[in-house]
Amino acid sequence: MKRILAFAGSNHSRSINHQLVTFAATLIHEAEVTVLDLRSWDIPVYSIDMDPDETPGRITFLIEQLKEHDGFILASPEHNSGPSAFLKNIFDWLTRRSKRVLDGKPLLLMATSTGRGGASRQLPYLEGALPRLGAEVVATYSLPSFNHTMVDGRLSGEPLAELQSRLATLLAAVNQA
User: Fold this and answer.
1) Which among 106, 93, 115, 9 has a CA at the least distance from the CA of 47?
2) Which CATH superfamily is 3-176 part of?
3) What are the boundaries of each domain within the chain?
4) C-beta separation of 109 from 130 below 8 A
5) What string of H, E and C letters represents the secondary structure of the chain?
6) Cα diameter, the chain
7) CB atoms within 10 A of CB 127
8) pTM for the whole thing?
9) Do 143 and 110 form a contact (C-beta atoms < 8 A)?
10) How far apart are CA 123 and CA 121, in angstroms?
């Protein structure tokens, strides 16, 4: 059975992007899904002064997880029209350890926010940056108005149908890889 790693690039204890990625994982039955919770990870800010002598243990663990999975779901919060500093810091560490740590594997890129923009302004940045890590971004999904759209931890109607469509695209790409 194919394996998918799902995680959110947020260290917020009540991350709505983590909630979204966790919900998306429950919709997948054709693959084994591991939801990785990064919210409590304490990763030092990348500095060339640490490189190459020291790799944080969490980064080493993440690299191993990325190797063991066939595809990925990444949900990213938006901070000032870009990804979170937390996620960017993880990317900085990963690119210094491997230029293609995602190894050409398919990735569904998601974002949500409490506003009507659904954290979508940062998606083009990530679509451009993730291939540098070796990801093949096969689909994107933006969920606006999280507090009104995600009710009792679930989506319904058009937002749910759209998410299921993006997940089907990911699964097709994972199965073809």
Assistant:
1) 93
2) Flavodoxin domain (3.40.50.360)
3) 3-176
4) yes
5) CCEEEEEECCCCCCCHHHHHHHHHHHCCCCCEEEEECCCCCCCCCCCCCCCCCCCCHHHHHHHHHHHHCCEEEEECCEECCEECHHHHHHHHHHHHHCCCCCCCCEEEEEEECCCCCCCHHHHHHHHHHHHHHCCEEEEEEEECCHHHHCECCECCHHHHHHHHHHHHHHHHHHHHC
6) 50
7) 14
8) 0.95
9) yes
10) 6
> Is residue 106 within 8 Å of 71, Cβ to Cβ?
yes
Q: Which of 62, 75, 11 is nearest to 41 (CA)?
A: 11
Q: Read off the pLDDT of residues 135-151 as tens digits, 9 standing for 90 and up.
A: 999 999 999 999 999 99
Q: How confident is the model at residue 177 (pLDDT cuts 50, 70, 90)?
A: confident
Q: Which pair of tokens denotes residue 143? A: 């969920």
